[in-house]
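**Archive record**
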Amino acid sequence: MYMKNKMRTLKEEIYKASVAQTDAKIKELKTDIKSLRDALTNDTKSSAGDKYETGTEMIQIEISKLVSQLAKQNKTAELLMTLSGDHTHTYVKNGSLIKTNVAIYFIGASLGKMIVNDTTVYCVSIVSPIGQKLLSKKVGDSIEMNGKQEILELV
């Protein structure tokens, strides 16, 4: 029971860290987009017209890239809102924390490697290769991914 509680606490912390990381990235992207839009608005056309047009186009391209990244981060935030760090799962699904003999995985948003409470956790999407292999598995089941991985704990 102690290990289950420890895993549940870790899951809650991972969830909070995932939300915080996503929120911070959204804020950063919004700030960057605003700065670039302000630069476009405040920029005055110089006598070298082609140079001005090229600079304006480069800023527009950068804004488009950032807007695309912002849309992706907003989708991640929406996904995280559907998950909760306090549910315990019997089978792997979105929101599950899985400990195998090789690694610990949090199924939800694809945020990559995180270190939470001195524990390395891989935050992966359910549609990722590892997410697909883990989907619907339970404690005691095994998967083949970078060698055989047995599911030891699941919350």
